[in-house]
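Per your request, structure below.
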């Protein structure tokens, strides 16, 4: 049984148990004979950061490498190929892991930014909150990158507050300073890039140009999501909410499951004949 480490991203969630896309991927991959490992990133879900502890991008990569360690030691996956699946900014972690760990044999990047996280988030926020939201984020990030600090929450627009917790300013400065294409150029494993029906905020072609032989799959249907997900509460208009669609449009009441994209991922990750 092949092993797949699933690395999520929105609100720095790594496909916790309630994440519908993570749940759907795990079930789909299991049906294809793939074992998956999902975990709460430190500082989210049941993984708590101690007061005063800071987080770094290297910490996230180290945690993902720990997932590979676990998979490689399981009876079901010992000696089998291991792949990583990264969602949103989790794809940035997946690329860094794949570039530095030869155990990663295949990579799937779902809605992973191909340009700066600033450009991607600005496009998403403008689609959800109007044209003033994007420039506000850009101004905030510019100050963050220069000072590695953040203004008080009451000095931010409401939709930006969940994205920029002040205690993680240094981590966020590193994260928003990443050029995804530079990391992508270091990935040697076969890579599948999956993007929503509206791929513009993600610029998948920039990633594909950097990763030799990478394939791009665009979700089909009327919505950019891969699973049935829709608004169950007022917070789902917030792009940081882990239950929102993985596209740049607002959540919808009911979204057809994109079985074609799910099948394509399963086939890409499936065991190869020896």
């Amino acid at each position: 049984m092949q092993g797949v480490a699933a690395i999520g991203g929105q609100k720095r969630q790594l496909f916790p148990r309630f994440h519908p896309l993570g749940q759907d991927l795990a079930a789909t991959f299991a049906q294809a004979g793939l074992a998956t490992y999902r975990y709460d990133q430190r500082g989210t879900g049941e993984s708590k950061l101690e007061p005063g502890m800071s987080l770094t991008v290297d910490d996230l990569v180290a945690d993902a490498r720990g997932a590979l360690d676990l998979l490689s030691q399981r009876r079901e996956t010992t000696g089998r190929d291991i792949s990583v699946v990264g969602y949103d900014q989790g794809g940035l972690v997946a690329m860094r892991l794949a570039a530095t760990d030869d155990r990663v044999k295949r990579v799937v990047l779902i809605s992973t930014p191909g340009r700066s996280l600033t450009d991607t988030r600005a496009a998403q926020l403008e689609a959800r909150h109007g044209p003033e939201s994007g420039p506000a984020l850009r101004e905030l990030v510019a100050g963050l990158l220069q000072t590695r600090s953040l203004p008080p929450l009451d000095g931010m627009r409401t939709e930006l507050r969940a994205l920029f917790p002040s205690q993680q300013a240094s981590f966020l400065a590193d994260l928003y300073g990443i050029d995804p294409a530079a990391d992508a150029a270091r990935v040697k494993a076969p890579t599948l890039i999956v993007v929503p029906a509206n791929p513009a905020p993600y610029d998948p072609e920039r990633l594909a140009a950097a990763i030799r032989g990478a394939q791009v799959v665009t979700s089909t249907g009327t919505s950019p999501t891969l699973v049935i997900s829709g608004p169950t509460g007022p917070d789902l208009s917030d792009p940081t909410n882990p239950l929102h669609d993985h596209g740049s449009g607002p959540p919808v009441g009911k979204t057809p499951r994109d079985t074609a994209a799910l099948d394509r991922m399963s086939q890409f990750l499936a065991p190869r004949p020896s």
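The longest strand covers residues 104-110.

Regards,
D.
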